[in-house]
Design brief:
alpha/beta
């Protein structure tokens, strides 16, 4: 059963491994700051860690965590998309393949799966990047992540946040869905107060970067792979982008996010 918050074409785009890879490729090419290096440094995975990766996609975080966890480390990864899980497995270096167990499963069903597969399993790190807000059962999933984390472990969640320049640009030409705008406020409005109540120590890291796009093709490729893409307004949006690129040589968008890392169970953990 799927508990994805989005329906129809938006759901397809949200879980599509092809669209995800397009976004990752353009980000890597055009982003002013390397997100993977940034989040890798802050997660600071140690040798021997036992890690839960929720909404792993094609494995952007799983892959570097498998390297950083060393020979004794293990990563258990879940994503709703079977294609993304297959891509993750294909991308694993042979030396790391035995460290990673990856499953195509809705994140809302992870707890039931673990209860049957390894009921006593606890993790030193439970992390989710660009994923948790997609689930209508996001708070239940977060609670599961906390319960499945060892007392000295940590829970880490990264979400996008405002300002998001490309969404703002697109919004001048068509409506942006409530689900998309909700995702931009999930970190600050929902996660931040929850983490303060439910963990004795909380780290808050803001990622502030820019997408610097120098060709209409890169813009169109990225825009068409987003969850806020509007087919009817696509030519209008892309033509406007092309005019700015032709005039200035580039088009720059703010792209920001927030990473919360909680450790130590607070007495108010039942707030979940």
């Amino acid at each position: 059963m799927s508990f994805h918050a989005w329906k129809g074409e938006k759901r397809r785009r949200a879980i599509s491994s092809t669209d995800l890879q397009m976004r990752l490729d353009i980000n890597k090419k055009c982003q002013s700051k390397d997100f993977q290096a940034w989040v890798r440094k802050r997660l600071a995975v140690r040798t021997g860690e036992q890690i839960l990766d929720v909404g792993c996609g094609t494995g952007a975080q799983t892959l570097f965590m498998a390297e950083d966890a060393g020979e004794s480390g293990r990563i258990t990864s879940f994503d709703i998309s079977k294609e993304s899980i297959e891509s993750l497995k294909a991308s694993l270096h042979p030396e790391n393949a035995h460290k990673v167990s990856a499953y195509a499963l809705d994140m809302a069903e992870i707890d039931s799966f673990l209860e049957k597969d390894s009921p006593n399993k606890k993790f030193t790190l439970a992390q989710s990047s660009y994923a948790l807000y997609y689930s209508p059962k996001r708070i239940e999933v977060l609670s599961m992540m906390q319960r499945r984390t060892k007392p000295y472990g940590r829970v880490a969640v990264f979400t996008p946040c405002a300002p998001h320049g490309m969404i703002e640009f697109a919004s001048k030409h068509h409506a942006i869905s409530e689900q998309v705008t909700d995702s931009l406020h999930f970190g600050d409005n929902i996660l931040r107060p929850l983490f303060r109540k439910c963990f004795s120590e909380v780290e808050l890291h803001y990622f502030q970067s820019s997408l610097i796009i120098k060709s209409e093709l890169d813009f169109r490729t990225f825009y068409e792979a987003t969850t806020y893409y509007d087919e009817q307004a696509s030519d209008e949006v892309c033509n406007e982008a092309n005019k700015i690129i032709a005039k200035n040589g580039f088009l720059e968008f703010k792209k920001c996010g927030v990473l919360l890392i909680g450790s130590g169970v607070n007495a108010l953990a039942n707030e979940f």
